[in-house]
Write a structure and sequence with these properties.
This protein is α/β, with parallel strands linked by helices. Helices cover 50% and strands 12% of the residues.
């Protein structure tokens, strides 16, 4: 008996590999996030085929952002296709997208992940599957390069992480966010849909150059036409390599934080650390003090680092969110304005010892 068409087989293989890698218990529930587009529809079809054969229960969640006319009809059509594929239960989740300074894409993403977390919690799902592809990963890396971001941003989207970490929220219980298709491209998911007779929704936002990601997609296509094939794969491979590096540096910074305790920190101890570890300490301290991560740039962190590497008596530095950083008595502090400066008055002088780690 002939096997499935190549594109269908490729998507199923990625889903099977991703789900078996989680080592889920028998009869565990998973939820596919499906917009009705080719990527998520191909993912839904593959999960509906693979999950039962692994002893898992598979449903779907369709988030209606209500940002376009007719979005409810699109959501219900996607849900109907998921049910026809055998996914059960299938939720249609309308959301209100709150407007913020982060922009429409980020606002929609925040609402979407909150809705997916709620759906997963309601269904007791062990994992939520997203349809991001190899092309999405390459676009993410390209955007990071344009912004001049560090290795964490350039490492792109991880295949596995706790649900809630995408938006900076605390992980939602034991639910895992899973991206099985980061190893396959959009052409493969579109071909899989065609081979299965599925009709994907063509989101008009994917052609609207108001959105930065759409412009990045077109720029990537132009670059690949000029530089030759392999650019998308190369950028994705770069993301994987940089993620390993970023994970190692994050762990070293975590160890340093546990050893030093919370700020203020002795400058003579900080200068012994690699700059990549120090900037991670500055970022953690600033976030803990209330600085919004979306506004905290690498330039902010490098400026704080000069309090250690190029100290000339400069005054307190202003960071986003009313947070300040400064140096006094051989100690570098990061905190919420004047209160942080007062905290240094009782801090031990440089070289007298390590500030105890807080209980946490």
């Amino acid at each position: 008996m002939p096997g499935p068409p190549p594109a269908v087989a490729a998507v199923r293989a990625e889903v099977r590999h991703a789900l078996t890698g989680l080592d889920l218990p028998d009869h565990a529930a998973v939820v596919v996030a499906c917009s009705g587009g080719a990527d998520s529809l191909a993912l839904a079809a593959a999960t509906a085929f693979v999950a039962p054969r692994l002893g898992l229960r598979a449903g779907a969640a369709v988030v209606d952002h209500r940002l376009q006319e007719g979005s409810a009809q699109v959501a219900h059509r996607a849900a109907a296709q998921c049910r026809e594929l055998g996914l059960d239960p299938v939720d249609v989740v309308p959301v209100e997208v709150a407007v913020s300074a982060e922009g429409p894409e980020a606002d929609a993403r925040t609402a979407r992940y909150a809705a997916l977390a709620a759906s997963a919690h309601r269904r007791g799902a062990a994992a939520v599957l997203l349809g991001h592809t190899l092309d999405d990963q390459a676009e993410q890396v390209l955007l990071g390069l344009v912004r001049g971001s560090g290795s964490r941003s350039l490492s792109g989207m991880p295949r596995v992480r706790p649900l809630g970490a995408e938006t900076g929220d605390a992980p939602s219980g034991t639910t895992t966010l899973l991206r099985p298709l980061l190893g396959v491209g959009r052409r493969t998911t579109a071909r899989a849909c065609a081979e299965l007779g599925l009709i994907p929704w063509q989101d008009p936002h994917n052609e609207d150059e108001l959105f930065l990601r759409v412009r990045a997609r077109r720029a990537l296509a132009d670059l690949e036409a000029d530089l030759g094939p392999g650019l998308v794969v190369g950028l994705s491979r770069t993301a994987d390599l940089l993620r390993d590096d970023a994970d190692a540096l994050d762990e070293e910074a975590r160890t340093a934080y546990l050893r030093l305790g919370g700020p203020p920190w002795p400058a003579d101890a900080l200068v012994e650390l690699p700059r990549a570890v120090r900037t991670r300490l500055w970022r953690r301290a600033a976030l803990d003090a209330g600085s919004p991560g979306t506004d905290l740039t690498s330039q902010h962190l490098l400026t704080v680092d000069r309090l250690v590497t190029a100290w000339r008596g400069q005054g307190p530095l202003h960071l986003p969110g009313g947070v300040r950083a400064g140096r006094s008595g051989g100690q570098v502090w990061v905190g919420a304005g004047p209160s942080a400066r007062r905290a240094t008055a009782s801090a031990p002088a440089s070289g007298t010892g390590v500030v105890p780690a807080p209980d946490c």
